[in-house]
Write a structure and sequence with these properties.
By secondary structure, the chain is mainly α. It has a domain at 46-90. It has helices at 38-95, 98-107, 143-152. The longest helix has 58 residues, at 38-95.
Length: 153
């Protein structure tokens, strides 16, 4: 007859009792084991904790240096933007002034009602010279000058 896995047969299997007092086990000699001095253990633990603290400090210093450089870059950018804003405000104030209107009228050869426009003409046969464009000279910087500026300026 087949039994289902859920039903078990009841058996009266009894295990023998072991008397631990009569059992002969080898004796463990604790005198042969090396004893660690408490001072050395404490010193090793303190050195380990100090090493972890130094690693954490190093990480924090790297983060501080990165953030300081980023702050300086942003401060420089803010300074440039403030200077640009000031220059643009100055240009807007000039463009709204009466001087700007008068300067534009002079460049367009306009005159006021009580003025006479005089246009100088060249003499017949005289050619007006055209100015030559001279590009600005570019000075090459020597390597030692770059290093000097890096360390001393």
């Amino acid at each position: 007859m087949a039994q289902s896995p859920r039903t078990r047969r009841k058996t009266d299997n009894k295990l023998p009792k072991i008397n631990l007092d009569k059992l002969k086990l080898p004796k463990l000699n604790l005198d042969r084991l090396p004893k660690l001095p408490v001072r050395q253990v404490i010193i090793v633990l303190v050195l380990g904790v100090m090493a972890l603290i130094m690693l954490n400090l190093n990480t924090r210093l790297n983060e501080y240096n990165r953030l300081t450089a980023q702050r300086d870059a942003v401060a420089g950018e803010v300074t440039q933007l403030a200077a640009t804003s000031t220059a643009l405000d100055t240009e807007v104030a000039y463009a709204r002034s009466d001087e700007a209107v008068e300067d534009f009228a002079r460049e367009a050869h306009m005159v006021k009602t009580d003025e006479v426009l005089v246009v100088p003409l060249p003499k017949p046969g005289q050619v007006t010279p055209t100015p030559e464009y001279k590009p600005p000279s570019v000075r090459t910087v020597q390597n030692w000058e770059i290093w000097w500026a890096l360390f001393f300026d």
